[in-house]
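Exercise 7.
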Amino acid sequence: MVHDPAYIRAVKEVVEQGGGRLDADTVASSGSWDAATAGAGCVLTAVDLSVSGVHTRSFSAVRPPGHHAVYNRAMGFCLFGNVALAAHYARKKHGLQRILIVDWDVHHGNGTQALVENEPDIHFVSLHQWPWYPGTGAADDRGPYETVWNVPKPAGLARSEYVSALESGIDAATKGFVPDLILISAGFDSLDGDPLGGFTLEVDDFVGLTRSIVARADSWCDGRVVSALEGGYAPDRLAQAAVHHLAALGA
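Solution. The predicted structure, written as tokens, is:
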């Protein structure tokens, strides 16, 4: 639904040949096809469970991540756009209309933006370090329908500044727009001390943000929140954040 069929075939061929480099940062191994398709499928199953009411909220602990993958190429460790795919899937399979995507990874979700910005009823909010990889996500980049809210911030700010900025971005994205489903690109490389970022957030900040999003979802869309792992490169910190995030989802 979101990627060039020729690109999908190319990824599978590389994997079948034992793996290889898909771009400067992204390497496929012999297991990457199974991992990437299972990861994407996990997020789609989470959408099914949310819409059906079986599990209204969930966290998909999947790798590879997805928010840098664009229509016809891999990028930034990402093969397929898991969250962007979930947004289109929710609309096509389940008939949901309005989708809100919140991305708090330290890097701009350029792939997610590219894959959803042409749908006026998908709103995308990205808090990310600026300037930083991949160099996209300027505040004045609103997308063709002005349905993108990029929130670029420098490294090293007080934790509260990042939290407040993201909350304000969500407020702006939902002014006059009540989502039927909230998707979270939960990148925990925005934690203090992550080797690939310079944000100062702590686990408690993600707990607060998660609870805030859940409260919004309860008032907007019967509590439907589907979260999926993106970045995070300090394994112990990532694990701690993921566990507390899941608990705060109340899934």
